[in-house]
Every structure is written in C-alpha cells, then in structure tokens.
Amino acid sequence: MRSFDAGSLERPDSSLLKYYAIISLLTGPGFLIMFWPLLFKYETLKYRFEDEGMSMSWGVLFRHEIHLTYRRIQDIHLSRNLIQRWLGLATVSIQTASGSSGPEMNIEGILRAGELRDYLYAKMRGARGLGSHATAGGGNPHDEALSLLREIRDLLRQKAPPSRQS
C-alpha cells in the first residue's frame, strides 16, 4: 500500500460527481435544479493541505473559501452513507470551537478518508504540541511544566511558616 500524502490532494475524486448525480436523480423531477449547483461545486472544488493548515474553495457565482489552521481543529468525524460506501467515498467533517453547531469544513470526494483523518489528527496534535509551551531545547513541554510546578511547590514549602502540631 502506498503512503498517504495529503499535499497531493487538490481535487475530489471523480466518484464524487457520480455521487452528486445519484443524489440528484433521487430527487425525481427536481433533478436539474439539484444537479447544476452540485456540478458547479464539483468542477470548482479545490483542497490545499500545507504545513500550518488547510483550505478549501468552491463556487462560480458565489465563491466560498475556508481556511483552517491545524491548531483550531477540535474534532474530526468521518461519515459514509450507503451510496458513499458503494462508491468508496466518505465525508471528513472538521469541527472547531467557532460556536456553530455544524462542522466548519466538510471534505468530500476523498477515497482514502480514513488516512486523511489520521493525518489531520497527527497534524492537530503536533500543532498543539508546538505552541507557546514548547521548549527551546526541543524537550517535552509536559516534562518541563511538571518540573516547573515542582520547583514552585518546593519554594512555597521553604517560605511557609512551620506548621504547629499539638
């Protein structure tokens, strides 16, 4: 199995267009009304995964762009309905602490969605670990925080008046 490279994901798989066509057909007489916006979305949908974050854009008349840093990600969900499973697709939903009830970004049309989810979790954890708590020497920030707390405890014990025992 080849290794996963999120940087190479720029466009959704062609199976997404098939999915959009099937979903539109299921609306019956509303097929054309439903299909055209989805066709334009598919044709203009672009992803970009970089070191600091990711972005997604789509649209012709109404252009939508979403930019997220890995640091802002709170949770990642993977969902597949029956038709998506049949086509090998999934939707990766990314939630942030933005206060909205829905996900901030839905990445559609990815065949290797489980690997993308794992990649995003790794980036999310790495971004949080490299924040302002990181040490200059590259040590573990949790170990440094623990040793700093122990130093504070010891200093407080030294300055505290002796306790009375009766």
How would you characterize the overall build of this protein?
This protein is an alpha+beta fold. It has one domain (6-158): PH-domain like (Roll), CATH 2.30.29. The chain contains five helices and six strands. It has helices spanning 15-25, 31-44, 82-87, 113-129, 141-159; strands at residues 46-49, 53-58, 64-69, 73-79, 91-96, 105-107. The strands form two sheets. Strands 1-2-3 form a three-stranded antiparallel sheet. Strands 4-5-6 form a three-stranded antiparallel sheet, with helices on one face. The radius of gyration is 24 Å and the shape is elongated. The chain starts with 14 loop residues before the first helix and ends in a 7-residue tail after the last helix.
Architecture (CATH level 2) name: Roll
Largest sheet strand order: 1-2-3
Radius of gyration: 24 Å
Query: What would CATH call the class?
Result: Mainly Beta
Total domain modules = 1
- The counted number of beta strands is 6
What's the average pLDDT? 86
Brief write-up:
The protein contains five helices and six strands.
Keyphrases for this structure?
166 residues, PH-domain like, three-stranded antiparallel beta sheet, alpha+beta
Topology of helices and strands:
Layout: H1 15-25, H2 31-44, E1 46-49, E2 53-58, E3 64-69, E4 73-79, H3 82-87, E5 91-96, E6 105-107, H4 113-129, H5 141-159
Antiparallel strand pairs: 1-2, 2-3, 4-5, 5-6
Helix pairs in contact: 1-2
